[in-house]
Amino acid sequence: MMNNSGASNGDSNVYEKQVEGHDHCENGDGSDNGVTLGIDGGTTSTVCVCIPFFPSSKTLPNPLPILGRAVSGCSNHNSVGETAARDTLEEVMAEALSKSGSDWSAVRAVCLGVSGVNHPTDQERILNWLREIFPGHVKLYVQNDAVAALSSGTMGKLHGCVLIAGTGCISYGFAEDGREARASGAGPVLGDWGSGYGIAAKALTAVIRAHDGRGPRTMLTNKILKALGLSSPDELIGWTYADPSWARIAALVPEVVSCAEACDQVATKILVDAVQDLALSVKAVVQRLGLCGEDGNGSFPVVMVGGVLEANRSWDIGKEVMKYVQDLFPGARPIRPQVEPAVGAALLAWNFLVKESTEKCHS
Amino acid sequence: MMNNSGASNGDSNVYEKQVEGHDHCENGDGSDNGVTLGIDGGTTSTVCVCIPFFPSSKTLPNPLPILGRAVSGCSNHNSVGETAARDTLEEVMAEALSKSGSDWSAVRAVCLGVSGVNHPTDQERILNWLREIFPGHVKLYVQNDAVAALSSGTMGKLHGCVLIAGTGCISYGFAEDGREARASGAGPVLGDWGSGYGIAAKALTAVIRAHDGRGPRTMLTNKILKALGLSSPDELIGWTYADPSWARIAALVPEVVSCAEACDQVATKILVDAVQDLALSVKAVVQRLGLCGEDGNGSFPVVMVGGVLEANRSWDIGKEVMKYVQDLFPGARPIRPQVEPAVGAALLAWNFLVKESTEKCHS
């Protein structure tokens, strides 16, 4: 729902390099005490990282050592069904452990940030899968993948708002007192118009409307037909039916951005509307949680994640969203995470452990 | 794509009664010369009727005798795949023939109006399926199902514009000189917002937006949750993922109409926008074909088909669309077909045969 493959900017390579920098010989800093698995389960792919288990009393080393990293397919049970989602998760964890030179018995904590967790029953179901795999002493946490993405920007702290816009989009936030809120992230049927899928679907619609006489002519027609190797807008109908995958549609976002950069009015309007939709999602979360304080000027982080926000083009969707948000909330501090969401998930596990041990001390 | 199950008004019962009125003992008026099959293949169901074969020289009897009628599932190859679509067609034809007390050898002409025919290659593929079933002398015609729907309003004559709004929507038209044009009918990804699916998807989106703080409160929330037996808008996400069928979404149109009738502003705006979208589809076709003549006042039929247009409620979408169209084109004459689209398809076969024999006479 919220993976960042919509308009990929090659992030996975960046993260691969982070792994290479910390290979097995550097494991002395904690892996003897076992490992923590952090998983980012999106609609397009699932990433698992293995980091050393840090006792809750310890501060985190910087940079964080990544012992192993594995990538697999979709683990959103809404998209691929329960059995396939579960198999994907087990597979990707096994591979990350194997790459770390570790095994299941070393695992002390697991945190899964997975798309499709919209309700406590979703959480409970996935916890049950994990409980069948791991013995009772292993700490298990399941969160919406947006929570792991937030944590990737705040290095484990659950405070502020994250905005993800990749194939899907969602805004998710936490107040200091633990209250949480979300907006969007409901999928294409339920109108996630700021997502990569939403932007590209509107562009395809504009091509059809120009073709059948309902809408103005637009550069999007030639640009998109060329990108897809089609000769007429009529063929778009068969093309969309042939494969209903959202990522395939969302992959057209760069074409829309190119047309907007060339001042095509239809493409520009699509992007401006997407910016407003994304900013509105952040606004809804910030207001419900009161993140901006009573005077509206309070400081809070806004973590920006996903290909749509990271495109780094001259028409920069992420920058425009942040401008809009800071107009509303001057204290909003944009954060571009330096680690990937799977590492955010692993940091989340550490954060939860710290919290639990603090609560134990006070009880 | 354009079946009329969106907001069903029990039409199938009406058509069943027409069949009952013409049972086997009345077949004297032409079935000795063989039969014609007319098929309406929509996204939700496929209907086949068997009528007597009328030589092209004869005028049609009124009312038209229906010898047999059969209903089956979806035959849109885009939705269910080629094999299933083909099997459905063969099955529904066999059943209609059997109910007529007839068999394959009696078939003289077949006309298939099927959704998903958007390109000559689609037409050719389906013609190939039919050619494998029928011997060479049988006349075979394949059209977009909108063409059969138009014919159901004009009793076989290909002139004017048809607007279908059921689960999907499309506008399709023919000029007297045979030129044709269409608008919409591209499916949900490509923005058929006037369709039953489009209306209901916007209503579901409005419920999510109200829930997460991005949109105004609306009566749609309670109305739709009650209709679906859900307790919170959060559960809508799982509900939409659980079954991606468009008809299931489109079935919520009556709830939207009820809320608009109770003056809910959000529901009213959704319906007003749908009316504009549908009218714009008609406008695009009329203008491209010049159906309204040079002065814009020329007379032409507008055939209105599908549950969204036939709902017959105090908030009447079909009536509003026609008002809008007649404001633009005073000569637009609304027609509510008295026969179903499958009969329209059968009449189309007759019309094509008349044309071919006329052309033969002149050549």
Automatic annotation (TrEMBL), chains A, B:
**Protein name in the entry:** N-acetyl-D-glucosamine kinase
Q: What class of enzyme is it?
A: transferase
Q: Name one GO molecular function term.
A: N-acetylglucosamine kinase activity
| Domain ATPase BadF/BadG/BcrA/BcrD type, first and last residues per copy | 37-349
State the family named in the UniProt similarity comment for this chain.
Answer: Belongs to the eukaryotic-type N-acetylglucosamine kinase family.
Task: Tell me the domain of life.
Answer: Eukaryota
Give EC number(s), comma-separated.
2.7.1.59
What is the species listed in this Swiss-Prot or TrEMBL entry?
Dovyalis caffra
Q: CDD domains, per this entry?
A: ASKHA_NBD_DdNAGK-like
